[in-house]
Amino acid sequence: MQASAQLTPTHADSAAYKLGITYPDVPLAEKQRLFDEVKADERFHDYLYGCYECGICVAACPSARYYDFSPRRIAQAAAREDIELIYQQMQEDIWDCSQCFSCLRCPRGNNPGGIITVMREVAVNNGLESAKQALRGYTRIIYKIMSTGTQVSPDMLQADAFPDWGPSVARVSEKLDLWRRALPPETHHTTTTGWQISTKTLVELYLIWHKTGALNMISELDASLHSLLEEVMEDLLDEQGYELD
Amino acid sequence: MTIPVEKVAGPRRKNKADFQWSEEHAPEDFHERLFELEEKGELVVQRVDTEHIEVPVKYGRTKKVPIGHTWHHKSCGQCGHIPGYSTSIFWVNRKLGIEYEDPSDQTSCTAWNYYASATSNAAAQAAVAVRNFATAYETGRFPIIHCGTSFGHYKEVRHELLAHDHLREEVRRVMDALGKPLVLPEEMVHYSEWFYAMRHEIAKHQVRDFSNIAVTVHPACHYYKLVEGDAIYDPEVYGGQRTAIVSEVAQALGAEVRDYSTWFDCCGFGFRHILVSRDFTRSFVTQRKIKRMKEEADPDVTLTHDTGCVTALDKSQFAAKAQDPDFATIPVMSEAQFAALAMGAHPYLVCQLHWHAADYKPLLEKMGIDHEKAWAEFEEATARLERGEQKYLTWEDADV
Ligand code: SF4
Ligand code: SF4
Description:
The structure holds two protein chains of two kinds.
Chain A: E1 7-8, H1 15-18, E2 23-24, H2 28-40, H3 42-47, H4 56-60, H5 62-66, H6 71-80, H7 83-92, H8 112-125, H9 129-134, H10 139-148, H11 167-174, H12 176-181, H13 199-211, H14 214-217, H15 223-239
Antiparallel strand pairs in A: 1-2
Chain B: H1 30-39, E1 44-46, E2 52-57, E3 61-66, E4 70-73, H2 76-81, H3 83-95, E5 100-101, H4 112-116, H5 122-139, E6 142-145, H6 148-163, H7 165-178, E7 183-185, H8 191-197, H9 199-204, E8 214-218, H10 221-224, H11 247-252, E9 256-257, H12 272-276, H13 278-296, E10 301-304, H14 307-315, H15 317-323, E11 332-334, H16 335-342, H17 361-366, H18 371-386, H19 395-398
Parallel strand pairs in B: 1-7, 4-5, 4-6, 8-9, 8-10, 10-11
Antiparallel strand pairs in B: 2-3
Helix pairs in contact in B: 3-16, 5-6, 5-7
Residues 60-63, 71, 97-103, 112-113, 116 of chain A line the site of one iron/sulfur cluster.
């Protein structure tokens, strides 16, 4: 991506502002290229049918209540193909969305949350500053999902990670091994994954990440995470006698 | 059991009591395309071919919910952080004498990498879903999906797979490499639909009286918003104008379901927000959900049916209480735990309430449960593990 030296300020209420994101302005052609990628995604046409600008989606949207964020603006910008605004939204707005899909109340049949999903994927694929910033501190989750096929694990419950959740977290983490062994379902005695996952399952999962290009998606975002995952996957696949083409 | 539509016709709301779904506005029934592709040999449809119950879904359609012979697609958030959730689902099955499989050959839907970080793509998400479906199919058991997000996400994946030839092609190529067929189930079934279908059977086994218990219900966005239709709407519950999920189970157990004005609002979980922007989640939970419920309905407990919702609603209350001692908390649990308690489940050995944050003890007292005695029993059982007399507690140990 070609970047000019100018850094764009962000709106004071957006997640981008809170994350301290400044991002490079880029030539119009680059903004067009990014939007073309969004538009080329076949889900996009399922998600947008024009916009009445009625604001019903905004009334239903949790993120609109607490951020300077609006699913109406997302749908409108996409419908008008306002590539300047879409670029700004990809850098400032899209990570505010809660992905709850309450905006599917739209009388026009739009899915602003779905448009945002696609915009996020394009932001990640192109290593946009907003994606890097928003996913900072999130690396462990991506690693966990891709390496174990599950995301939320019992050992994530650490008092210093969730001080606002109160003393129950500290109690659980202190007794974690014992309390996991006290669970009647045999698959639940694990601490590093939600349940016991077989090696065969992991092999199949790693083949999926490789063959669908999902593993490559994160190379732009985080090169070291990418190579770590690649190594973990190749080790297991090798051990199990799989050769990657 | 009926919840009349007037229950949602608050002072400013005028709902039509005789609401009818219009065929004209209904989206196409996905089954037509599913069976068409099955006939062409493009995919395998796993049929509901064992004993099942037909339940009413949106647009006046029905869905088949298998009773037994099920393959439980677990939720990582439930198993990981709310283990009494999955334990209660299994315990209720066992109490009703229904056999099921709790597989280790199962991944989660991995949709956190879709809704939270967007570090996956349509083909990968579809392949993960189909791998799980094909694995269930190989066992001959029908998948029951525990997580609301997995359920909604799989409905979306199904939509994509049915709509796009090249996506099916790509997923088939991946499945070929895994030596598995491209399988989609005839119905996508969420565990809460099984609880709805089995509510009368569950009520027959009820040993604790819940007639003095008032509940509010939070329906999970990803259960009924993410893909239109294919969620339970019962004409007897709110005139079919809202999903009947959870509410009808609570009713069948004799509890009083109370309405509140932000029923439709999400829980504020937000995926990335619950991890890295929790100020948003906390504000939303306390201001839009808990305070509203408390002021308008004053329930003894709030029930929901999804991983993220239990987590966000339960854990976010502590900080509000710490900041304002007058902040009135509400215990949070799944209807599976609620139903298990109704059937006599142990609050700690089965429902694992010690993993929850908001104070649930007044609720247990109202249910007639001696929580101090129950905790002593839990401690006695775990002491056996500490003394090395047993490595794990078993289902038999859970029924003291
Ligand atoms: S999906 Fe995003 S845009 Fe839509 S209502 Fe939820 S938070 Fe708002
Ligand atoms: S996206 Fe839909 S609900 Fe939102 S403003 Fe446009 S037409 Fe209205």
